[in-house]
Amino acid sequence: MWNDFEDDDSWDEEDDGEGYRREQERIENHPVMQKAKDILHLTEAMVGALDEMSKDMYGTFMIEDATLICGKFSGAEGVDDYILKMENAVFMKVHARHLNSMTYSVPMVDTHAEEHLELLRDALEEFKLLFVEWVKGFDPSHKYDDGWGLFLN
């Protein structure tokens, strides 16, 4: 039982590792991921400049939003299943919108430079345009019904 792969001539451990690296590189270099990373870096810089009270109130949520956008993109792009892609896409949208709303909340409690907030808003708008095109490429014929009833029609 445990030696099943030893007799399988089609199993090539080096090729599998190389295929994994190529897939990771493809995901990392995708325009949506690149913009998500830009958003993460802008968010980190902005949060780093906040006073302690604002960091406590907003910083954690903002970093969480930006980080989850990157993670959920990797999760969506790494599978073929339409339902899983859509689930991850919805999380990305929700966190991007929340992060954008935070850029309007921060000035109420912190005298942060408006230019930094505007840079983040602009990056989120660029992300949204890339996101819309990316989601259009999802293939609804590749779906596995997970029993939750979402994204079936």
UniProtKB/TrEMBL annotation:
Superkingdom of source: Bacteria
Region (Disordered): 1-28
Organism per entry: Echinicola pacifica
Protein name: Uncharacterized protein
Compositionally biased region (Basic and acidic residues): 18-28
Compositionally skewed regions (Acidic residues) per UniProt: 1-17
